[in-house]
Write a structure and sequence with these properties.
The complex is a heterodimer of chains A (245) and B (360). With 245 residues, chain A is an alpha+beta fold. Chain A contains 8 helices and 11 strands. Chain B is built from 13 helices and no strands. Classes of the chains: A alpha+beta (245), B mainly alpha (360).
């Protein structure tokens, strides 16, 4: 307290109030006049972008499996899957409204096939709002090292055990897996049709009273990306996600 | 009759001859002769000389704004103004911008006074430009009471600020105006007393005489009267209301101070008039204490004068960059307990020098 008071009083003397600030100001002015200022003249000069700079989301057309994970995970709901025609085939690919996008990178982080990446582009201004809605073709960006967002994931059971950084997002055993409830399932095989990775296979488990085969889905954990398409499309809510531990 | 008038008279004689030739051509000989008569030529000469001096003062003021923005920018490791060569045309761009803005008059203001305050301020500032000579040759007048007149006009500005702040009908503007009035009584006395010391030594109110006195004695008056120079420097900053004495504006406390309600071109002109007053105060300091336009003759005296003004202004910019704003209480205390005794001691030194007859 005493030292603080003394410092305060000393600062109020002419040396502290007048001369020291003036000497600092003159020194700084001379220093900054000799070297060029810190300001970057932006439209003419640009800063070098770091490796892995995350600007707008980009799309790698071939990798996308239309699993809808990006649509579900987007916090601002700016992603939509739209139908496009590519080489004669009708496909669904994400369209992003960059006017609403907050560049959080969740879509790229959760994309199981790294089809969505973070492109190092930051000059996104447009003249109309329509310009900011990027259709899949406008969104395409060439995948590079550093653009893909690969998160090292930790299972809940591993959290306190000291194991870190063993699982990557495409690995097996770190995702929730779908599970079928035998009583509710009616064997309609809709889950097989909607699965984007062909991880569902309908297997005959028996024969009913009328002699028709009873089919039940079997999930391939290697192929499954936990997109929950089967769960969403099940007419009887027979599928549930089994939490990973 | 000095160089400026001779130059301008040449132009106006030529112009009137051209006009007279046109009227001769359409056979109106009486009108042509009237245009060529001495009175018309003299009137045109005076107007042109006033115009030239005003434009030069205006350009110097704008250059001071440029200097301030550039140096402050470098101080903060920025680039400062950008438009044109070295950013010299930024202020013209800004002026154009304020010029095309809509004129908004708040409904609750006292309109007549509200409009009159900037006119008084700008008119007074522009009048002072005419009274500042750049050299023997480049001067509009060399009045025998020039110094008195300049300080009289200088003191009108706080009045304009007070009525402008009052008429704006806004608590910030009223407080700014009151602060301008409170400030006036603190700095005006030491300022004038420091000038008195110069007048005692020189024995004349004429600016030309003061500069010639310094030339003849071969010494800047700022050296024997160093205390006076110091007092003048500090109270001139208070006179122009710059940091650290910018109480009427006080951006952090009073929004924009007394000019909160002024917008568009009015604001631009008020800002410009502040820098014109800054230019006048700097040039007074140069004329009274730093030898005016005297200097080695390898460049023109006008250039010497402008260089000195810009150097003094550079010190002001450093002070603006370094110091914090004082309170009303502190400025009164500085004015009456620090500057006034210094100014009185300075007058004593001047009287002693005058009595001893060192200078002639």
């Amino acid at each position: 307290m005493g030292a603080k008071q003394a410092r305060k009083e000393r600062n109020l003397k002419p040396k502290g109030v007048l001369l020291r600030p003036l000497s600092v100001v003159i020194r700084e002015t001379v220093k900054h006049t000799i070297h060029s200022p810190n300001t970057v003249l932006y439209p003419w000069e640009r800063l070098v972008i770091a490796d892995g700079y995350r600007g707008r989301p980009g799309l790698v057309m071939d990798r996308c499996i239309q699993c809808y994970i990006c649509v579900k995970i987007c916090p601002t709901r700016c992603i939509e899957l739209v139908e496009i025609e590519l080489e004669g085939k009708k496909l669904k690919r994400p369209q992003i409204n960059l006017g609403r996008c907050m560049m959080c990178g969740y879509c790229a982080e959760y994309c199981p096939k790294n089809a969505l990446i973070m492109a190092p582009e930051y000059e996104l201004a447009g003249y109309t709002r329509q310009d900011l809605i990027y259709d899949p073709f406008k969104l395409v960006y060439e995948a590079r090292e550093g653009c893909e967002v690969n998160v090292i994931e930790v299972k809940p059971s591993e959290l306190h055990s000291g194991i870190v950084g063993t699982n990557v997002k495409t690995g097996k055993g770190i995702r929730d897996t779908p599970e079928v409830e035998d009583k509710k399932c009616i064997g309609c095989s809709k889950c097989e049709k909607v699965c984007p990775t062909n991880a569902v296979e309908m297997i005959q488990t028996g024969v009913n009273e009328k002699g028709r085969p009873i089919k039940r889905p079997k999930f391939d954990e290697e192929k499954c990306v936990s997109c929950e398409q089967c769960l969403d499309n099940c007419p009887k809510d027979a599928i549930k996600m089994k939490e990973v531990k | 009759m000095n160089g400026l008038y001779e130059f301008v008279q040449g132009i106006s004689v030529w112009l009137m001859n051209m006009v007279g030739w046109i009227f001769d051509w359409i056979t109106l000989h009486d009108v042509a002769n009237w245009f060529r008569s001495a009175g018309v030529v003299q009137l045109l000469t005076n107007l042109l000389a006033a115009l030239v001096v005003f434009i030069v003062g205006f350009l110097i003021s704008i250059t001071l704004i440029w200097q301030e923005r550039k140096v402050l920018g470098r101080l903060m490791d920025r680039r400062g103004t950008q438009v044109g060569v070295l950013g010299l045309f930024q202020n013209f761009a800004d002026g154009l911008k304020t010029f095309i803005k809509e004129i908004i008059i708040p409904t609750e203001v006292d309109e007549w006074v509200y409009n009159a305050a900037p006119v008084i301020l700008i008119g007074g500032s522009a009048l002072m430009i005419g009274l500042i000579p750049l050299s023997d040759a480049f001067a509009l007048t060399n009045l025998s009471t020039g110094l008195l007149l300049i300080f009289a006009i200088f003191s009108i500005a706080p009045f304009a600020i007070l009525i402008g702040g009052w008429a704006s009908n806004n608590k910030y503007t009223v407080m700014g105006g009151m602060r301008a009035a409170a400030q006036l009584i603190s700095y005006e006395v030491p300022l004038l007393l420091s000038v008195v010391s110069v007048i005692i030594l020189v024995g004349s109110f004429s600016i030309g005489d003061i500069v010639h006195f310094q030339e003849n004695n071969g010494i800047w008056l700022g050296i024997p009267l160093f205390l006076g120079l110091l007092v003048f420097l500090i109270s001139a900053i208070a006179e122009v209301e710059r940091i650290p004495f910018d109480l009427p504006e006080a951006e952090a406390e009073l929004v924009e101070g007394w000019m909160t309600e002024y917008g568009g071109m009015r604001f631009g002109l008020i800002l410009l008039s502040e820098y014109i007053r800054g230019y006048v105060a700097c040039s007074l300091l140069v004329l009274l204490f730093l030898g005016g336009w005297s200097g080695p003759s390898f460049i023109w005296p006008e250039i010497w004068f402008i260089i000195k003004v810009m150097l003094v202004f550079l010190i002001w910019i450093f002070i603006r960059g370094a110091l914090v704003r004082v309170t009303t209480k502190q400025i009164l205390s500085i004015g009456w307990t620090k500057l006034l005794p210094l100014a009185l001691v300075n007058i004593g030194i001047a009287v002693a020098l005058k009595m001893s007859g060192v200078f002639h």
